[in-house]
Amino acid sequence: MIRTTLLFVYVLVLVVYCRRNWFVSLCGAILLMAVVQHPDMPKNIGGIQGVNPWNMLMLPVILSWLVLRKSEGLVWDMPVKVTWLLVLYAAVVSISFVRMIVDQRNLNGVTTAYLLSEHLVNCVKWVIPGIILYDACRTRQRVTVALLVVLGLYLLLAIQVIRWMPLSYAMAGDSLSYRASKIIENEVGYNRVNMSMLLAGGGWAMVAGTLIFKRWQMKGLLLVCAAVITLAQALTAGRTGYGVWALLGLFFVTLRWRRALPIVPVIAVVALTLLPGVSERLLRGWGGRQGTQEVASDEYEITSGRNLIWPYVVAEIRKAPVFGYGRLAMNRLGLDTFLAEELGESFPHPHNAYLELALDNGLVGLSLVLPFYVLVVCWSVKLFTDRSDDLSAAAGGIALALGLALLIAGIGSQTFYPREGSVGMWAALGVMLRVSVEKNKSAIPRTVAAVPMNPGARRLHRAAALRGTMPGRQDVSGSVARTAWRWPTKLDATDSLRPRVRGTQTPGPFQYTRPRR
């Protein structure tokens, strides 16, 4: 009762405050995702589908954003190719949903209202925070706050896992897997497999977040938080997550910190030595020598039965390879029931995000969705490897960690349909896209406004613009102090932090001007 009361007070305060600063309320809504699946979290109020605290908070935030963004002078400038990829992504999800509604065979015990809320409305609402953050993060201050909020979300999830999964559970692989599957889902609310993927990406996102700060104290604090998230990830007993963590580590240090490449295997060896249950869970089914006996490897144990169900899924895909069958195809075709009877285990989904997307939407849907992820990964890599600005690199690294975690884990689980666990990833992608767009704007040479200017000052202005710097104010002696482009720290149209040249004002990155009336 006390926790529920505090929850509603938290939501009420943010709802009231969003009229003054919707960005702060949006950040509060993102942090609320850490407990949105908790058993004590009200799923609906008054028995009305969709009326819950998170929706009650996001609705005023969206309305405030739509109303106040014009007064703040925000102009929508998402790149055309990103817009079209998002539209195609939404079209695939929507058409798949419509096909499911038309043919609801084998979907017993569910209502159309539930299907509408769970498989269409929710898929859209989990993406909205990322879209709003793209429009909001036009200063360094807001970019920093948004990135720290995303990192805070994964830290809160890790703290909950450690709270309910003591280290004593990691002494044996069987007990670790059994307890994780029961405790994490019952006490935290997220499935342990999903939680393992989230924390694998969140750990390396926290490492990338160290680029936000210059002081070594803050960098050390974030590294400690990364260690906490990694420990929580180890306690989830998700083997797919273990593999994601290792691959992300190798990828990250290869891209940015090559000197730290030998440290990654050392960390892995130390973790497996101190937590024998983790190593037992990771190596289960691989065989090897136990005492004097040689134990053969077991593919069923290694893949947790996925090697048996994937051939059936592929066979169904071949029957409708172009457009698939629509959403929840595995359930509507009765394939899950057949596998339960044939194998004696429940497989309600293909345990492979790529196969699920191909089964539901065919190769057409697969080819329309994957390009979006390819684009954001490429842009994230470009930012992460750019050493000219650490904040941009941090935005790229955080988005890269969370996006690649989904793409890698999708081989053994997950889904490309947006759900509650992907809110942090979409938020990071929104910030990354904003930073990328602003950096591209600052790289474009700007034309000089038609104002009175002597020829020498005009040539100097143009040359400095091509080099990425702008001349500062001219003093009495005529000398010019050149200053590099710097992003403003406040979203204030009346406080211009841009350099001026004798009446000429050139917009810089992360800065906007109030529209003229």
Model description:
By secondary structure, the protein is mainly alpha-helical. It is built from 21 helices and 6 strands. Strand 5 and strand 6 (504-505) form a beta hairpin. Helix 1 runs antiparallel to helix 2 (22-32), helix 7 (140-164) crosses helix 19 and helix 19 (390-409) crosses helix 20. It starts with a helix and ends in a 12-residue tail after the last strand. Residues 445-452 and 468-517 have low confidence and may be disordered.
Give the domain tally.
3
- Radius of gyration computed on alpha carbons: 25 Å
Q: What's the mean pLDDT score?
A: 81
Helical stretch tally: 21
Shape: globular
| Estimated structural class | mainly alpha
| Spans of at least 5 consecutive residues with low confidence | 445-452, 468-517
Widest sheet: strand order?
1-2
Element-level helix/strand string:
HHHHHHHHHHHHHEEHHHHHHHHEEEE
Strand portion = under 5%
Q: Span from first to last CA? A: 52 Å
Which oligomerization state do the chains in this entry correspond to? single chain
Helix content: 55-70%
| Sheet with most strands | 2 strands, antiparallel
How many beta-strand segments? 6
